[in-house]
């Protein structure tokens, strides 16, 4: 009776699994890794060290069952799947902090000892299974009535309010997915205002990073959520938002003439800005107002449809600084490759997302982007989905006559039949992907001691686009996260850099790192004033990640019609590509079903005593829906709820 078999637990696969389980299908979700999310995952510091070692060694996984081919019948053929991940390349890690006897330092709450990890290489460490292999239901945060609309607050105290995670003793582990008690203590400490914000940054050593490693949640794929984007709409519609918490990005930054400065976005920001003249404020507001309803004024852009957005901006009588802000910090598009219409659409999307949850268009999930796939996995499990980590798949079994996939064979030699199969691109062998041309993404993750733009408020979530030095090169997207996002320890910042690859990740991104940060490991030597003012990099890792988005299904030769391929993370800032892909695949399998409908309200489901007795006896039952209450009952129930809420 199994309908869906998903291989890998990335974001598109998790959304599809949740949608299928919600529509009543039986779902099996397997992943050869020992953590959820694939290349969408988040790691603690020790977990990231293990991931680095694994991808630097690239060891083959030996078959645990050598005779699985005996399960294949004469009228069947197999499509073998990859047993090792080839999506990550050129992994290079460097430690710029003080490595003061970190050899014997242990991560707080972790069993294994962590090694010294420096610029010369990495020594691996076994991952703590309670941290890196979380149970499905181990991280339900906050109160039961938590809604996404509560993400408007940027106060550090609100980030940890209601973060105590409830754990089901029957189905869940005693450890949280990405927090634990140490994270809660961190949040409480951050709730108090800092007294040393204007003083010199505290000296952070490598041993401190190792010791506080569980307070880090480091994303492999750096993303933000548009407040009116497809993913936010899906989280609200499906009620999956109750499994996660979010913070609003607090500021948009620009890098111009060698300096980082804040970009005014909203109407209030524009008129309160001190960096713009009154003339510039009026010019910017007039242009942004035009972008909101540009389709109503086609005469103003028709002549520039074949021009780039940068060329169109020059005709709008905007000053060079305003052109820079609009192009790189609001529209966030390429100077050479973006058409006028694409630029206007990107600007309008940015403006439409303003004000829904805060002064910027973006939200960030507490504990990292890796929480989002787990939220959908949790929804799938609630509706009967089965999850198996550390469970690799040997092959797809295809019927020669019909050409459809009948089953998969796992590493235990078990044959598992299903109607539909969802496979992540990285599992497909080179024989299937002969005509596929992959793009690459350059990624860097830095741990720094200061923000790229210091202000009175320490807890800032910033996004910065660094334009390329040479035309034709990609711009670099920089996302800086503070400790109140539960992604790094106190007095540090976690910085993600992302761009489409032209070379190795280090070659693409290190010039930008050198512009924004100081790589000097010695603080006592005489250096230039500019270097002293820059934030100092304590630790860094560079890697290239495969971008398999946008590949046509026909490029995968010989795949059965009931096997669907999902891509990994793309280089875009948002998650629209993953949501569109998941919805398209779901409707191809079940054209008449609604995609991720809201779950039923538990208060509307009741069981009478006879049904409960029959359920305990082993007989199945069907829930009854509560009748609509009378107006008197509704009013009394509402007043009681308000009274209880006020008493709390």
From TrEMBL:
One of its GO terms (biological process) is small GTPase-mediated signal transduction. Keywords: Cytoplasm, GTPase activation, Transferase. Pfam families: GDI (PF00996), RAE1_2_domI_C (PF22603). GO terms for cellular component: cytosol; nucleus; Rab-protein geranylgeranyltransferase complex. Its main location: cytoplasm. Residues 605-614 have a biased composition (Acidic residues). One of its GO terms (molecular function) is GDP-dissociation inhibitor activity. The keyword Transferase applies. Belongs to the Rab GDI family. This is RAE2 geranylgeranyltransferase. It comes from Anseranas semipalmata (Magpie goose). The lineage of its organism: Eukaryota, Metazoa, Chordata, Craniata, Vertebrata.
């Amino acid at each position: 009776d199994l309908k869906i078999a998903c291989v890998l637990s990335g974001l598109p696969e998790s959304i599809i699994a949740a949608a299928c389980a919600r529509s009543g299908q039986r779902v099996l979700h397997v992943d050869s890794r020992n953590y959820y999310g694939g290349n969408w995952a988040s790691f603690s510091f020790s977990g990231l060290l293990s991931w680095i070692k694994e991808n630097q060694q690239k060891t083959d996984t030996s078959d645990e069952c050598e005779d699985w081919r005996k399960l294949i019948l004469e009228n069947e053929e197999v499509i073998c799947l990859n047993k090792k991940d080839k999506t990550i390349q050129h992994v290079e890690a460097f430690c710029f902090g003080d490595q003061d006897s970190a050899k014997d330092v242990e991560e707080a709450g972790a069993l294994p000892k962590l090694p010294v990890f420096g610029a010369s290489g990495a020594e691996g460490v076994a991952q703590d299974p309670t941290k890196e292999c979380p149970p499905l239901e181990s991280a339900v945060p906050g109160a039961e009535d938590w809604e996404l609309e509560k993400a408007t607050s940027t106060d550090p105290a609100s980030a940890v309010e209601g973060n105590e995670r409830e754990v089901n003793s029957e189905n869940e582990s005693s450890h949280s997915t990405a927090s634990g008690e140490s994270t809660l203590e961190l949040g409480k400490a951050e709730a108090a205002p800092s007294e040393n914000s204007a003083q010199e940054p505290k000296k952070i050593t490598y041993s401190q990073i190792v010791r506080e490693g569980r307070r880090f949640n480091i994303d492999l794929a750096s993303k933000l959520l548009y407040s009116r984007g497809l993913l936010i709409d899906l989280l609200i519609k499906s009620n999956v938002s109750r499994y996660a918490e979010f913070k609003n990005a607090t500021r948009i930054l620009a890098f111009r003439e060698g300096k980082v400065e804040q970009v005014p976005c909203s109407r209030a920001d524009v008129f309160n800005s001190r960096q713009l003249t009154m003339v510039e404020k009026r010019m910017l507001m007039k242009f942004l107002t035009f972008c909101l309803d540009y389709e109503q004024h086609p005469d103003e852009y028709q002549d520039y449809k074949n021009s780039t957005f940068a060329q169109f901006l020059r005709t709008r009588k905007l000053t060079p600084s305003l052109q820079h802000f609009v192009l790189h910090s609001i529209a966030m598009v390429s100077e050479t490759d973006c058409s006028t219409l694409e630029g206007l659409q990107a600007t309008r999307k940015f403006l439409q997302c303003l004000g829904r949850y805060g002064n910027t268009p973006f939200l960030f999930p507490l504990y990292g982007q890796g929480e989002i796939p787990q939220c959908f996995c949790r929804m799938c499990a609630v509706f009967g989905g089965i999850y198996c980590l550390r469970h690799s798949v040997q092959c797809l079994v295809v019927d020669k006559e019909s050409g459809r996939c009948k089953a998969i064979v796992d590493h235990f030699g078990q044959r598992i039949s299903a109607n539909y199969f969802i496979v992540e691109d990285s599992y497909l062998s080179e024989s299937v992907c002969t005509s596929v041309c992959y793009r690459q993404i350059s990624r860097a993750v830095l741990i720094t001691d200061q923000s790229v733009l210091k202000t009175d408020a320490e807890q800032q979530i910033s996004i910065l686009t660094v334009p390329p030095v040479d035309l034709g090169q990609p711009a670099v997207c920089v996302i800086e996260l503070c400790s109140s996002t539960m992604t790094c320890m106190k007095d540090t910042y976690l910085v993600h850099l992302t761009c489409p690859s032209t070379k190795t990740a280090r070659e693409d991104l290190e010039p930008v790192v050198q512009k924004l940060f100081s790589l000097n490991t010695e603080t006592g030597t005489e250096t230039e004033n500019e270097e002293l003012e820059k934030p100092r990099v304590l630790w860094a890792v560079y890697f290239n990640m495969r971008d398999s988005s946008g590949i046509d299904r026909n490029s995968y030769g010989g795949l059965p019609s009931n096997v669907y391929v999902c891509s990994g993370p793309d280089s875009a800032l948002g998650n629209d590509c993953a949501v569109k892909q998941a919805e398209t695949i779901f409707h191809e399998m079940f054209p008449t079903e609604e995609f991720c409908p809201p779950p039923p309200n538990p208060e509307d489901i009741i069981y009478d005593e006879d049904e409960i007795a029959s359920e305990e006896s082993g007989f199945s039952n069907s829930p009854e829906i509560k009748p609509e209450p009378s107006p008197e009952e509704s009013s009394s129930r509402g007043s009681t709820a308000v009274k209880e809420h006020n008493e709390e």
